[in-house]
Design brief:
The chain has 66 residues and is mainly α. Helices cover 80% and strands 0% of the residues. It has helices spanning 2-29, 36-60.
């Protein structure tokens, strides 16, 4: 049971970081704060977070035999 709670906490943390990256990417995309290299790195990190979130969500769902 404790493992499940730790996984949920990690999922929450990843979702929060993903949301924060959205804000940073939006601000860097504006003409005044344009830094292409940093923007590219942040977008890659955001995609990696999305993949981690999807994997954790998949692990939390029980296997359903169709």
């Amino acid at each position: 049971m404790r493992d499940r709670e730790e996984i949920k906490a990690r999922l929450h943390q990843l979702r929060e970081e993903h949301r924060d990256l959205d804000s940073v990417i939006d601000s860097l995309s504006r003409p005044t704060g344009f830094d292409q290299l940093r923007l590219t790195r942040l977008k890659k990190r955001k995609l990696a977070l999305r993949d981690q979130i999807a994997q954790i969500e998949s692990d939390l769902l029980p296997d359903i035999i169709a």
